[in-house]
Design a protein that fits this description.
five-stranded antiparallel sheet, 2 domains, alpha+beta, elongated
Amino acid sequence: MSSPPEEPWRTVAVPAERLDGWIDRFASRHGSPVAAVDDGAVRLTAPDGAVARIHLPSGAVAGNRAELVAAAAAFDSFGLVLVRRGGYAVGRVEGQRLAQSRCGTRYVQGKTKAGGWSQQRFARRRANQADAVAQAAAKAVSEVLGTRQSPLVCGGDRALIRQALELSGADKWHIARWLDVPDPRRAVLETAVGRARAASIDLNKLA
């Protein structure tokens, strides 16, 4: 049975290739930790009470440090699907690199305070614009990711993403991680590659 996290905790992101060094620094500050698998994460407990819970996007867990570090580095091929009302960006990552991508912008009107028929017409227009974003994103998913059923890392508007995945036939694919992203552009997509692969580490107040 997993242990409930103590409060307060903070979360840091550590690039996959730097995880080994991060564990070294954690040990040098707090003493050699004991590792244990804990509810889908690897929990490091140091002699001074400092605790780190390491989550990998692949969901891999290992009590052995070498295996954990290797698992972090091994998550290097996946699909990126970023969708917000301002546009979409879809990428295929292979060997840590963005091998193929497709990006596009769309305009979806903001909310209005108008009432009556005007508000209803506005709501229909806004819904149609959002549908157009999802349809464009779905087309990009089909063109860039094909049917290979890669693990996915998604970011943005979850409702639009799920709509796009359903339209493209990728709604059954495994979503490894969700990211918070601004309006998707090529630069945002490139940055998301590293963020998608990073280990997410929860630290207690002593760490």
